[in-house]
Write a structure and sequence with these properties.
By secondary structure, the protein is an alpha+beta fold. It is built from 14 helices and 22 strands. The chain has a domain of 186 residues. The chain has a 22-stranded mixed sheet that branches. Helix 11 packs parallel to helix 14. It is elongated.
Length: 602
């Protein structure tokens, strides 16, 4: 077939012409590839040295260059600091706070304009792709170095003699292995991230962008995404996990999905710890207008708005004896903002949606757990800050929360926290919509050994002002047809004591039948030092409810002193006498009502 093809003269001429064209194109291309490869290599190394004041060097084992296609592949790249130069900078007080090191097995460059680089000193690249890079950051200081001794030139000014422009359309880093060593503390702190991707768009270094503050690291946008991150507390009692976290420097938005704080098994946890046990799951978290640049430089947190959508938070009160510390003040939200958060914090608004909260406590007598639940929580928190200049303008943090108490009745709650008061002053007030009293049994029964057998709440309102030590306020608990069973630890009914409670001690209605003025409870509660924040709030409200129902300290003591070994005959006499007295009162009340009606008719 080939012989027949070359049979005609024009075919042979065509073949010769094509061969010559191939030689004309390929030989210069091959020459340029071999000639420009070392030139390009030298330009890159020179730019790195000049751009970093000789602090960093870049090396690689091999470079494959295709000038015609604008492609290059670099192998076994190492970007690392020169320790001798760093020591010299440190002596002059001009050393940076952080040192960076990068190792990449393969770097792929596409759509590069080699001729433009060589003849015009312009580095213009379409895309750079790094697969599985290893990045290491060593942090040596949090303080700014003496700016008077530092080179104040911009990066462009440093490289302008070698490069007039640097532009990369897209930079992709996939499956990053990131490690940070922090040498600023008493011990070296190591943190590591895996399965992280980064995408930088429109990197541009020229005379116009050298002072452009809208760009981050000269890029129009840098988007990072972290997947399947997990870490464990040094104590081994908590595991922290994040399914995904994505940050965009252009939109200043950080989006987190699947955040979990999981404690160890309850038995194991309370054997090893005397602190409360927390469980947290947040489905979606969005941080809007997150000043990442400030955070990256100083670790200060400045966020305009956080939205948390769907999740739950559980607090399990520690029952493992008394705490070693004398005061559980550390559990107060405004104490945490002031002291637990070591960095500067400023969150203008925090919105909650579709959250559930549960507080659990063990009754050591019954050996059973009571669970206080608030479902479908939505709320807004304002002015969460410990920044001194902001506290001078406004030192109050507020929280407006709506939920469903025990999953049944709408519950509105308003908190105010004084963020710089020495007594940790705070206040709260709220309103509970109507509900059946039997719906409270899951928390009341195990903790108080009392079961609601009938009754309905008309409304529950409270207004309390507190310090870390004392809570004072009013509680209004309006209800009808209240009846209870007093129980033994095995939940069997104490028949006689229940009868005593229902006939002598409890008020069955508030306001009383025929009375228009309800009973209000003026609560004064002194917080035990080992009571946590949520436990304190719960006991303040519980005391107000008891007082509205006619159960004061004296009545509680009377009930608690009754046992199954009491003289039943004596107790029966007390109950019968109380029943008769109540029947007489009811009879008198009915006669008065009848007289009033007859008087109106006449």
């Amino acid at each position: 077939m080939a012989v027949k093809f070359l049979k005609h003269r024009w075919q042979r001429i065509l073949l010769i012409v094509l061969g010559v064209l191939v030689i004309i194109i390929l030989i210069p291309a091959l020459f340029l590839n071999s000639y420009l490869a070392p030139k390009l290599s030298g330009k890159v190394k020179e730019a790195v040295l000049k751009g970093t004041d000789s602090l960093y060097t870049i090396n690689y084992s091999d470079l494959d260059l295709n000038v015609l296609q604008g492609k290059a592949v670099l192998y076994d790249i190492t970007f690392k600091p020169d320790t001798a130069v760093y020591k010299q900078l440190k002596k002059r007080g001009a050393a940076p706070n952080n040192l960076y090191e990068l190792h990449v097995k393969r770097l792929y460059i596409s759509n590069a304009r080699a001729f433009e680089l060589y003849f015009k000193k312009k580095l213009n690249i379409g895309r750079i792709t790094l697969n599985s890079p290893e990045i290491q950051i060593s942090k040596y200081s949090d303080k700014d170095t003496d700016t008077a001794k530092k080179d104040k030139r911009t990066l462009y000014q440093k490289i302008s003699k070698s490069l007039k422009l640097v532009h990369v359309g897209e930079i992709l880093l996939t499956d990053i292995n990131y490690k940070q060593r922090d040498y600023t503390g008493p011990k070296v702190a190591v943190s590591q991230l895996r399965e992280m991707d980064l995408k930088a768009t429109d990197l541009l270094i020229d005379s116009a962008t050298q002072t452009d503050t809208s760009r981050f690291l000269f890029c129009k946008d840098i988007t990072t995404e972290l997947k399947n991150y997990s870490s464990k507390a040094a104590s081994g009692l908590y595991t922290f996990k994040v399914k995904s976290a994505k940050l965009s420097t252009q939109t200043k938005k950080l989006t987190i999905t699947g955040l979990d704080l999981k404690p160890a098994d309850r038995t194991v946890f309370f054997q090893k710890s005397k602190k409360d046990r927390f469980t947290l799951h947040l489905e979606n978290i969005t941080l809007n207008n997150f000043d990442y640049i400030t955070y990256q430089k100083s670790q200060n947190i400045d966020i305009k708005k956080i939205v948390i959508d769907k999740g739950f938070f559980e607090v399990f009160s520690n029952y493992n004896g008394r705490l070693k510390t004398t005061d559980r003040l550390v559990t107060f939200p405004h104490w945490a903002i002031r002291h637990a958060i070591k960095t500067t914090l400023n969150i203008d608004t925090l919105d909650l949606k579709r959250m559930n909260f549960m507080y659990s406590q063990l009754n050591k007598t019954s050996k059973k757990f009571g669970h206080l639940k608030f479902d479908n929580i939505s709320g807004r928190f304002r002015n969460l800050t410990n920044r001194k200049e902001d506290l001078k303008k406004n030192n109050l943090a507020t929280a407006n929360i709506t939920s469903y108490f025990m999953g049944k009745a709408k519950f509105d709650l308003h908190f105010v926290f004084n963020l710089n008061d020495a007594t940790y002053n705070y206040a709260y007030k709220g309103h509970l919509a109507p509900m059946n009293l039997s719906d409270i049994n899951p928390v009341l029964l195990p903790l108080s050994m009392v079961r609601m057998t009938s009754g309905r709440v008309s409304s529950f309102d409270f207004d309390v002002h507190s310090t870390q030590r004392v809570s004072k306020g009013t509680v209004s608990f309006l209800y009808k047809d209240l009846n209870v069973d007093v129980l033994r630890p095995d939940y069997t009914k104490k028949t006689l004591i229940s009868a005593l409670a229902n006939t002598v001690i409890l008020k069955h209605d508030n306001p009383d039948d025929g009375d228009k003025t309800p009973r209000l409870a003026n609560v004064v509660y002194i917080r035990p030092a080992n009571f946590a924040f949520f436990k304190t709030v719960w006991h303040v409200l519980l005391n107000g409810i008891k007082n509205c129902a006619g159960i004061g300290p004296a009545q509680e003591k009377k009930l608690s002193q009754q046992t199954d070994t009491d003289d039943k005959k004596e107790l029966e006499k007390i109950v019968k006498k109380a029943v008769k007295e109540k029947e007489k009162e009811d009879k008198k009340f009915k006669e008065k009502v009848k007289e009033k009606k007859e008087g109106k008719k006449n």
